[in-house]
Specification:
Elements (H helix, E strand, L loop, with lengths): L4 H4 L18 E2 L9 H9 L3 E2 L2 H4 L1 H22 L5 H10 L1 H25 L4 H13 L5 H4 L4 H10 L5 H20 L10 H7 L2 H6 L1 H5 L4 H17 L3 H9 L3 H14 L2 H9 L7 H25 L6 H17 L1 H4 L2 H15 L5 H8 L1 H4 L2 H11 L3 H14 L2 H10 L5 H26 L5 H11 L1 H15 L6 H12 L5
Parallel strand pairs: 1-2
Amino acid sequence: THESNTEIGDRANDAIRVNGTDLRCRVVGEGGNLGMSQLGRIEAALAGVRVNTDAIDNSAGVDTSDHEVNIKILLNGVVARGDMTMKQRDALLAGMTDEVGQLVLSDNYRQTQALTVAQARGAEMLEPQARFIRALERAGKLKRRIEFLPDEEELAERIADRQGLTRPELAVLLAYAKITLYDDLLASDLPDDPFMADDLMRYFPEPLRERFAEAISGHRLRREIVATSVTNSLVNRVGPVFVKEMMEKTGMGPADVARAYTIVRDAFGLRALWTAVDALDTLVPAPAQTAMLLDTIALMERAVAWFLTTCAHPLDIAAETAAFRSGIETLAGDLDAILDPEEAGRLAARTLAYTAEGVPAELARRIAALPVLAAAPDLVRIAARTGRAVEEVAAVYFLLGRRFGLEWLRDKAGAVKADNHWQKQATAALVDDLFAHQTQLTVRVLDAAGEPDARVAAWMTQRRPVVERVEQLLSELRTQPAVDLAMLAVANRQLRGLTAG
């Protein structure tokens, strides 16, 4: 509404141009460039219209050209070696049209899906998004005014109103996240990691993977293709500010975060889960699909930070994935025998919530189990270091979590209202401490003999005075109408006493 026709610079359409607030449709898809101005998009989005940007809605064209160029570079080398004629090349290109189209559509599907998931997180992510914007500005990579992103005053107003960025604004942030991460990855040694050969192969249609795998491995733009593929996979699945958040939390670099992301993705088999969720389009309510994707992001946030802070660097993607995948699969398939009744009840309730939305029972169960499996890296490592079965370790771990209210405390920490970045950091640190207490307690209790209940009981008897103080505190906390950060800090200190000495 504040822009003039002169500012738009498209006189031929002056007579039919309207403001974003005048639109009476629910969805806008821009089939051409600049069907709307960015400020018009933002106004429409704030009024409830679902709209991306022209760059997002037309990105398949660029993606198609990208695939075409890289495929022709590959095949031109094959032709030059005399392994194929130009006529055979052209026939092969024509025969791959549909699969290339599907690869492109899949990329762009996930990109718009990423905007939906980011928008669903809304105001809770506005502060980290604002920090990302400021960091880009300080680095000279972004001019906020040119991209029509909110200034500091408007950001403060939106934070106060609990209003997140609109889809058009998130689209800009998504683009800058991909640009900066791509540059960082290309400058690192990640594209040269042998494990990334799979990402390179996935970029190309199946006929090329089958016939020219060696040529693909020697593609002169292989590093650029790998950097692009990893960037798209990471940002589309976990959002535009994930890398920066992980860097702030762990002190590691972008390539380290990408390595940890790849380990978690493959060790937990998340690609299969994502495919299953995507297959539910039009079969279940879209918010249910978004909720399932948010569950995978929550797992990523916990597990990626774990690998970044507890493993040797540089991370060996192949070795770490192999070391953890089997144990994670064992835990996922044996939860009924491992979990105590209380935790099993929570898992059943989460599963029921998804099946009630029409999600198939097996997928609902796998997604519902992700909060439990967030502890899997700790359990697998304890099992490896103590020589015990991972199921035995898990049984003790979850029993201790219930006896000392650790899961309950983590839930309360997650519900604490954090008004700024520092409060969020303090809450996250408390949650990390609660996981650490549970891990340390498990190692201590495993030294005792007998069944899990007997082991825990024997250990608690030995530590009776400090156990009674913790139990008394937890009993008092459970009677409180609300648990705040100060209460959680006191509980954390008391729990630390359980593993002291």
